[in-house]
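Q: What would this complex look like in 3D?
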Amino acid sequence: MKERLAAFAEERDWQQFHTPKNLAMALAGEVGELIAEFQWLTPEQSTTVMSDPEAGGRVRAEIGDVMIYLTRLADVLGIDPVEAALTKLEDSARRYPIDQVRGSAAKR
Amino acid sequence: MKERLAAFAEERDWQQFHTPKNLAMALAGEVGELIAEFQWLTPEQSTTVMSDPEAGGRVRAEIGDVMIYLTRLADVLGIDPVEAALTKLEDSARRYPIDQVRGSAAKR
Amino acid sequence: MKERLAAFAEERDWQQFHTPKNLAMALAGEVGELIAEFQWLTPEQSTTVMSDPEAGGRVRAEIGDVMIYLTRLADVLGIDPVEAALTKLEDSARRYPIDQVRGSAAKR
Amino acid sequence: MKERLAAFAEERDWQQFHTPKNLAMALAGEVGELIAEFQWLTPEQSTTVMSDPEAGGRVRAEIGDVMIYLTRLADVLGIDPVEAALTKLEDSARRYPIDQVRGSAAKR
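A: Here is my prediction, written as structure tokens for the whole assembly.
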């Protein structure tokens, strides 16, 4: 997907706009649209949002947009997002040991 | 990674907190931290942020966090984020034909 | 407050950083910190967050930060934020007539 | 404005949706729309956005929306946003003494 996104930008001469600063903004803009889909739903209602074809379609499209800009941003920064996520997950595993944090949402 | 994140949450009894609504908020919170790394940089400075070990390390960690919550959110919604991104990319290819939009950032 | 914020920036020679683009990013970063305070709370728990001195103090500080950057952004754009809000409120009053939308969160 | 927003919500029986959690999400959604207006502009272009009637009108409307949800969120939390901002500004004045930080965007 990284290559397809890079080609998409290059064909349109859009690399000039794809600085990390601008892509971080585009990512934030898309996350804003995604969060708007959930703002008036209860947590319970949010778990069944995909069973509504219209709202579900919008949520799927927004997830796609967020994924596009996250992938593109990571690419122009030279970061592998999966590797970065796994490193963070290992950090979190150390910071939140299972036997100490079960069932608690408190931040450390 | 999807499975590792799900196991991570299950071991800590955190699925109760992982509603789509809450995960969308967590995603937005992490994107806020990511964007803060770029806010005072010029677009040019943002392109070399990874050459600064400290700022670069923070950006990598934030990309990891965003990837974690995006993957987790897509998982609880039953969405494949790569597939959703590719669908959106095809939409965009139709909406932004190469010969009509070259070099222009105008929205359609 | 607008004048105090402008003086604060001028004394520190920070106007150079205070472009609308950068201030919009700073605003988004602060809103990210604010939303993180609520991400794992139920809607009910969120209504009593101010009764916890620690969390309440953080929320108050984040509201302050958001207000600072919103005021500063509006100022450099030459917009009166209260006037802009009242104009939008009148639009919303027309789009959401009381007798048609009572109790419904549906978007129009 | 606080009272007008509260009346607007009450007339429509919308207080049920206006928990701090939901309002923080609505605020983040509006900030996402605002930031999208600036994402492909250079910092220099962003300083003249208001001279374009269309883009300028959208920016003004988004500033209004952000102000609405910030005011409403602060109100349901019992926070005076101007007071919260002034307290934060005093903190910042102490943390960023004029003679030490002139012209530098480094965080403390």
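A: To summarize the key features: The two ends of chain A are 35 Å apart (CA to CA). Chain A has one domain: 2-96.
Q: Very helpful, thank you.
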